[in-house]
C-alpha cells in the first residue's frame, strides 16, 4: 500500500539518461508532494470528463494485438512471444492515446515499425 504518497521504482537506465540529458521524470516516477501536486492537476482532467477517447484508443490497440495473435490461435503455427506482444500492445495504447484513435487507426501501418522499436526498447529497460 502506497499511503498518501506513492513510491515509484525508478529504472536505473532512465535515471542515468535523465541525469545525462537534464530531464525530469514525469508523473509516473514522481514521489511525495511533487506527485500529489501534479496528480491533482491530472485528476481534474481524467476524473471529471468523458473518457471515451481513452476507451476508443484502447480499442484500436486491442484490435491490433488481436489481428496479430488470432491467426496463430487458428493454425498450428508457433505462437508469438506473448511478452513481446504485450509490450507492443502497451505502446500501441500509449501512441493511440497521444495521437487519437482515428489518426492512429489511419496511420498505424506507417508507425508500426517505430512503435515496435519503442516497445522493444522499453522491454530492454524493464
UniProtKB/TrEMBL annotation:
Any matching Pfam family: p450
Name of this chain's protein: Cytochrome P450
SUPFAM superfamilies, per database record: Cytochrome P450
Claim: Kinase is one of the keywords in the record: no
The entry's keywords: Monooxygenase, Oxidoreductase
Species for this entry: Rhamnusium bicolor
Family: Belongs to the cytochrome P450 family.
Gene3D superfamilies the UniProt entry points to: Cytochrome P450 (1.10.630.10)
Molecular-function annotations in GO: heme binding; iron ion binding; monooxygenase activity; oxidoreductase activity, acting on paired donors, with incorporation or reduction of molecular oxygen
Amino acid at each position: 500500500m502506497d499511503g498518501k504518497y506513492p513510491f515509484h521504482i525508478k529504472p536505473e537506465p532512465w535515471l542515468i539518461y535523465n541525469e545525462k540529458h537534464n530531464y525530469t521524470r514525469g508523473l509516473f516516477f514522481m514521489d511525495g508532494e511533487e506527485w500529489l501536486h501534479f496528480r491533482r492537476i491530472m485528476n481534474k482532467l481524467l476524473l471529471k470528463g468523458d473518457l471515451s477517447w481513452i476507451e476508443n484508443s484502447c480499442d484500436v490497440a486491442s484490435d491490433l494485438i488481436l489481428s496479430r495473435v488470432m491467426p496463430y490461435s487458428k493454425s498450428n503455427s508457433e505462437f508469438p512471444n506473448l511478452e513481446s506482444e504485450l509490450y507492443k500492445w502497451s505502446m500501441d495504447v500509449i501512441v493511440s492515446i497521444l495521437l487519437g484513435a482515428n489518426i492512429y487507426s489511419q496511420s498505424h501501418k506507417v508507425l508500426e515499425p517505430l512503435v515496435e522499436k519503442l516497445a522493444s526498447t522499453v522491454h530492454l529497460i524493464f
